[in-house]
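mind reviewing these tokens:
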Amino acid sequence: FAVEARLASAARRWEDDLRQVLNDEEGEARAAPLYKRFGTAFPTAYEEAVSPRQAVADIRRLAALDKGSLGLNLYRPLEGPAGRLGFKLYRQGAPITLSDSLPMLERMGVRVLSERGYEIHPEAGEALWVHDFSLQLPGSDDIDAETIAPLFEESFARVFEGAVENDDFNRLVLRAGLSADEIVVLRAYAKVMRQTGFALSQAFIESTLALHPRIARMLVALFKLRFDPAQQDDGAAASQVNAIEQALDRVSSLSEDKVLRQYLGLIIATLRTNYWRTGAGTSGAAGPRRAFLSFKFDSSKIPGLPEPRPMFEIFVYSPRFEGVHLRGGKVARGGLRWSDRPEDFRTEVLGLLKAQMVKNVVIVPVGSKGGFVLKKAPPMTDREAFLNEGIVCYSDYLRGLLDVTDNRVGDTIVPPPHVVRHDADDPYLVVAADKGTATFSDYANAISAEYGFWLGDAFASGGSVGYDHKDMGI
């Protein structure tokens, strides 16, 4: 009997075992169409490396793929050593090249030991691909793969589709257990540091946060205690500030301490943020987070900010663009320019603001200026594509400004939805054309109408309707 059993086992094909496991795990009704589609789809190399039981997990993800979508699975390999992880990518159509995936994984803080790619040919439809990576965590690190998998998979997918930047901030997924959206907050504050003349580089800022993951988590927690509409608590925020300061006292490196204290100072100087405004519309209805993140600052509280300091400034961050708006007082107007200075566009805008305040002294005692830069612009040789990218980013830049600006309905001030305010009512925001945006006033007024902003087409002067301050001699 033993010999007969061994002979029967040897005679069974991998596909026969797959059919049995599918029936056991999915039930006959669902297993039948899955087996019909995938029973003979896998190459020999896959069958030799993957057991039928493991293949069922792959089939579930492959069956759920849409055209162009990405399936992901971070897992702990059976009997793998400490710090070893497996990561599978599933895709319909073209395979994922190593030159695309490898830098993303390495910037998430893992070492890629190997990759095996399998082309799957289902009964109907396009070819499917399974890429199986063997990953090693740095040093003696180890994690609970089941707990961290959703964060890791979501972050990788967001980087892959271009919704999140591919940089070493992404190490905080594994190091600090932060989500992609939480990391965007820390990344955006680092961009603010860069524009305000902070001496240390982004690479050093990234490595500092990775070395101090507990403090990184504490900073994100403080941000939430100050601005999350569902848990905002000034008392708890003050206690969190004290806890962070105590943790900073134990940081031995002066430069690392400087980075972390700058983060703390920027969060305290923040007055409003649109982080909790979701959906594509203006109401903050349920949906994905905005593709851009806005911070409104009390400029007098930003550590190390060069003079002169405006009363308020709004910084808008996106993977596609960055922008700033500096305002010298409650009532002030000035142009927004399409800047070509990505390294120091705030310095450019600050210089313009100083000139604007002198020029405007006969009208109002203060001025305002703004500017934005493109980060993923098409080549300027493709003039139409370049201009279209500028218009799209300019529009989102304005949305980022209006997201944190109060509205006026009759005599009532209406705060923006899902925005916690640490300042008084502030409904005044007026913009104008400047270098690169001379023909953009109608786009700006369309955004004003989209938000139902109280100034209507007086939001941006110089358009096809409303007033033109130059024609009127103002």
About this structure: The first strand starts at residue 70 and ends at 75. The mean pLDDT is 91.
